[in-house]
Amino acid sequence: MELKARAKINLSLDVVGRRPDGYHLVRMVMQTVDVCDTLVLQKKDSAGISFACDAPGVPADSRNLAWKAAELLMQEFGVRDGVSILLKKRIPSAAGLAGGSADAACVLKGVNELFGFGLTEEELCRRAVKLGADVPYCIMGGTALSEGIGEVLTKLPPVPDCRILLAKPEDSVPTGQVYHDLDLLESYPHPDVNGQIRAIREGDLDGIVRTMGNVLELVTIPHHPAVTELIQIMERNGAEGARMSGSGPTVFGIFRREEDARIAYEELENSGLAKDVFLTRPYPVTDTMQEVYA
Ligand code: ATP
User: What residue owns the CA closest to ligand 1's atom 3?
Assistant: First the structure.
């Protein structure tokens, strides 16, 4: 079984409180993009999980979220056979793109199907939140509002046709540290998440871009000034708007025109500020978009 695990960006990201157990309460508009890892899952006769990953620096053992996802379901259902997992990484790691969460969501769905557990998407989401705040969303995919600690999901209509550029600086960012640093701030301005949801429902790309905001920029940017420079390069080269995704440091830019996105891509590649640059688009592609991209 070969599956694709797609990255996400945060069209907006707000932190609205903290639960007594320390988990942060969020309001985030999530969007899947067509940059993906590939997972190959196969049943095997011997018990346990065998795991291989082609990316140096990403753990290829029980610390990997994809491993943890398989373990969670196989233990619950007392599976005697085992599973082998091959993970081919393309999504940059610790980059604000939820690569690990996407892999975990993909394995939950894959193992559910491979062993015929018959769990619904909702039942998978209930288990997914134990692995990480973004994993339930990654099961759902598309455009969605994520609230609570990531377990309260509301599906939104797909965003209008656009091109999305991703630029990831050399550094990686540990998500936990960013949230910890945010707690040290007394107050901060909040993005207009409700306005963005309205704009999405109206299919208004200008409105979506105008309301983009990410409170985590406040703590990530001082340590990673390349984020601001990447935002500026995108905006100078025709992006409708550009922001940091998740806890960073990846920057995404929204473009109406493919030509502008291609020129910005070249600029970013030549800037020396980005280790990885991707020209992509929202996923899934809507019917009208398919006509455009055909
Ligand atoms: P988010 O946007 O959800 O905060 P992220 O993109 O910042 O996530 P990930 O790529 O998910 O971060 O990786 C975070 C850490 O998790 C990495 O440092 C890595 O060692 C570990 N990790 C565990 N499993 C995976 C995986 N399947 N892919 C990538 N990293 C993984």
Answer: 98
